[in-house]
Automatic annotation (TrEMBL):
This is YokU family protein. InterPro entries: CHP03829_YokU, Znf_MqsA-type. It comes from the Bacteria. The lineage of its organism: Bacteria, Bacillati, Bacillota, Bacilli, Bacillales. CDD domains: MqsA (cd12870). Signal peptide: none annotated.
Length: 92
């Protein structure tokens, strides 16, 4: 169990869920299934950790999103061939 980022409770546990993400160019949204998440038994919130969010956003910048189907699994997204080597817009 982990501490919930929303309520601070100690009942957050790993799970997978579907998320919907707008592509960086704003042309469409995609459903990403089987996405790693945390589910809190105290507040019922299901959310992605910051690392997962960064992985998704970086990957969407680095791949040719025109080839993406409307629904893709998290694993398939992460395995999609990159056209850039890294996210040149990440200054963190």
């Amino acid at each position: 169990m982990k501490t919930c980022e929303w309520c601070g409770g100690l009942q957050a546990s790993p799970c997978v869920t579907a998320v919907y993400w707008e592509l960086p160019d704003g042309t469409k949204a995609v459903e990403i299934t089987d996405t790693p998440a945390l589910s809190c038994a105290d507040c019922d919130m299901v959310y992605q950790e910051e690392l997962t969010i960064k992985e998704i956003e970086d990957q969407l910048i680095l791949i040719d999103t025109k080839k993406l189907p409307h629904t893709i699994t998290f694993q398939q997204l992460m395995q999609t061939e990159r056209i850039l080597k890294r996210n040149y817009f990440d200054f963190s």
